[in-house]
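Supplementary Methods, section 5.1.

A reviewer requested that the exact input to the structure prediction be made available. We therefore reproduce it here, unchanged from the version used in the analyses.
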Amino acid sequence: MTNLSVNLNKVALLRNARNFGIPSVIESASTCIRAGAHGITVHPRPDQRHIKPEDVYELAQMLTVEFNIEGNPSPQFLEIIREVKPTQCTLVPDAPDAFTSDHGWNLVTNGSWLRPIIRELKDLGVRVSLFMDPDLTQIEYAKEIGADRIELYTESYATAFRNSDHVESVFQEYKKAARKAQEIGLGVNAGHDLNLQNLEKFCSIPGILEVSIGHALIADALEMGLFTAVKEYLRVLSHE
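The structure derived from this sequence is encoded token-by-token as follows.
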């Protein structure tokens, strides 16, 4: 079964619209854990528009499941990782003012910069994943510079699934990318715009270890409740 890591950024975004802590990121994490989520993901950005550094530190104190922290490896971000030492750090090439993550790493241009960062994080005992497009050449570079896993950026799959006319060809690109990564010894995660409609097909790709889902799951939680939403995503992932 593919593990589910719930991204709590949108909980923090709603919380930040007021100044009295509702909804609580910590309580939401507890609910996700009680519902059976395998992990919690956060993506602290420099503008702190959703997850704030203090959220990261509080979560680190209470989590009993995998903690995955995503972000561009700026000095401020890396300082958080050094202090928290999460289970996994997913490095993402988003600009400080990015609306959302919208592309994977170009390791031809960024590989030399990332290599010592990856080495440091691994020396801290942190598993390192790189946010990647389904590009076979780039995936080979991810292995060369020391990553443990890749996270396939799934927006193009989700878009194709909504349009349905060319979903199969796009799906096959991701399937080939996952197989390539596994053949060279990389674990494969996935995330971005996965939801209850498109998740089962994507995770029919053999060996997907973990999906990180935030926006769609929190949107579903508005209708069905967070506990039930997590359960529903776990049901899809278990292929029941």
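The two ends are 11 Å apart (CA to CA). These observations are discussed further in the main text.
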